[in-house]
Structure formats: structure tokens, C-alpha cells
Amino acid sequence: MCQFVRSHAGTGMTSDLKTYPTMNRFILYAGLLAAAVTATGCRQAPTGNTDGDGTISPSFVQQYYDLSAIAVRQYFDYPYIQIMPETYETCSYSVPPSVRFKALSEKYGDTAYNRPLAPFSHTVYCNEFSGIDIFSDRDFDAAHPAGASLSDIVRIVGASPYRYIRNGYTAPFDWRELPEDYRIENGISYLEGYLPVNGTLCELDAEEMYMLDPFELYLKFTILPEIKKHTITVVLREQETEITGSTEIIFP
Questions:
Q1: pLDDT tens digits for 66-79?
Q2: Which residues partner with 89 through β-bridges?
Q3: In this structure, how many other beta carbons lie within 10 angstroms of the beta carbon of residue 101?
Q4: Among 23, 78, 102, 194, who pairs with 97 as Cys (CB 3.0-4.6 Å)?
């Protein structure tokens, strides 16, 4: 079943998503499940076979977000930008699956997982981004005047289950061995089956951005500017569409 959501609409479910996307992933899932069961006209939880730990699902991904607007903010005091879903349409696993959910699962080859999963436990973007760009309203350094692309000095810090799914649900990444960009005190938390998406923005190809985790998506500056206060604009490109968001950041 598919549903349109604005995260600033004021409901408890979407407020949690907007305010606590990093540390409260499982609280969010619980809220989504409760809303699914109690809200009139909302999505329904899967009711297929279970083994006591969750529904036996043919799909690893339980929910797709089709993003149309983002919110961005500085992540604590770090030189990181967090990208959060603000306006989006959801498409969730159900029994039987919706036509759209089935089409997305088949598109990404996610049809043979057949293991127990809690409803809404694995969420990804179904947007196929062609690139991510980032700009500042002030001079960043001699090579990056105001308005110039900073994509050569900013790295994506995210995760996706795309390679795990394409590899037949094998060889999950061991998140106890964090790549350097993920090692920050307040923690970035990923689920088993998600693999790192990590590299300089200007070097990313489209396939690396398939099925990004909406709740843990960051951009890290590799160079710090002399001017500490900037307004940063992030641009996600998808074919002819641009999804933009801006925020003020104070660099260390």
C-alpha cells in the first residue's frame, strides 16, 4: 500500500521521522507499525506466514520512500550535513504486495529473501539519483568561491542494501569495522545487510546511489574553511528533477 507523507504535517509518526532520524530508528519503526494498525486509511501490516520473530518476507526491503523534498542540517558540531526526508510517498510490503511494491522489488532483484522481518524494518529510497551537489553562499577557499560546486571536497557517508541484494543476500558488511568517515562520537547506526556508500561526490556513479538508507545519509567536508559560518545548499539530482535543501553550518 502506498501513502503520501509530509514530515512537517504535525502527526506523531512524521514528527519522529523529522526530529530523530539518527538515534531513534527503531522507535520510528514502532510508531509506523502502530500507525499502520490503528489509523483509518493507513497502510496495513503484513499478515503472511510467520515464524514467531516476524513475517516471512520474500523482500529484504520492507518500505520504499519516493522523495520529493528534503530537510538538511548540520550534524551536531561536526563538519557533516545530514540529509533527511521531508516530503515523500511511501510504498510498503503487504500481503499480497501492491502492484508498485512488487514492481520495485522485481526491478532491484529483491524477491527471494524469504526470512522473517518486522514490518517497515528495512527502508530505502526508490529515487534513482544521478548525482549529489553542494554549494556555499560564501567563499570556501581559494579554489571554491561562493556559489562554486564543493563536490570535490565533500564525501557521501551513507548505506544501501543494493549490493547485498544483488549478491543473493550474502556477504553483509561488518559494521563493527567502521570506515573512517563513519567514526564520530554520537554514532551513525546502520542495519545488517546495508553496505557503506562512501566516496567523493564528484566521483559517484548513479548505481552507487541506488536504494540509499533515508535515515542515515550524510555529507562530510574534507576541508575546513577559514570563514566559519556558511549557508550550505544540497542538490539531489534525479533525471530532470532537482531536490534541494539549505541550512546554516558553523564549521569547527
A1: 999 999 999 999 99
A2: 4, 66
A3: 23
A4: 102
